[in-house]
Amino acid sequence: MKKKTVLFICVHNSARSQMAEAFLKHLAAGAFAVESAGLSPTSVNPLVVEAMAEKGIDLSGATTQSAFDLFRQGRLFEYVITVCDASSEKQCPIFPGLVHREHWPFEDPAALEGTHEQKLAGVRLIRDRIEEAIRLFVRRFGSGEDQGAREGGEW
After folding, report:
1. Structural domains counted in the chain
2. How far apart are the C-alpha atoms of 23 and 52, rounded to whole Å?
3. Which pTM was predicted?
């Protein structure tokens, strides 16, 4: 059986989309072919690497990629899930083919302020919300087969 493909998109592919990709790979046990990308990719946020390590997920070697490069390559995804704010989500390309698009708005870890510990605490909260969203997604589509995804869904 062909795996369903999932793409998570956020602004920089440095935090939210990286966490979502990692959690889906971890929790769905290979049921999906999953990637993440950004509108303006940078590098993975070190606080995200630290917070995910606490969950036993190593993102220390993760790299970022451009959503627009994937679009230009004609890549097809059954599920495109944006995890940024609404204004950024509207900048995302429309991928060809039959796509179930959802928007799950999460706060940007890069916008957190304070000491290292305060920012890490904020990243942990965002991480845990993303993990719960992924757990719900896996319950809905855990076999990797389309079980009635709704277009334009929102978390």
Report:
1. 1
2. 9
3. 0.87
Residue 116 annotated among the catalytic residues of the structure: no
78 is catalytic: no
- From the list 48, 92, 123, 138, the catalytic residue is 92
Residue 125 located in a structural domain: no
Which domain, by its residues, includes 92?
1-104
Least Cα distance to 137 among 114, 153, 117, 120 occurs for 153
Integer angstrom CA distances of residue 106 from 10, 28, 85, 100, 128: 9, 21, 7, 19, 11
Query: For 53-92, how does the pLDDT look when each residue is reduced to its tens digit (9 = 90+)?
Result: 999 999 999 999 999 999 889 888 999 999 987 767 677 6
Phi, psi at 82, each rounded to 5°: -90, 140
CATH of the domain at 51: 3.40.50.2300
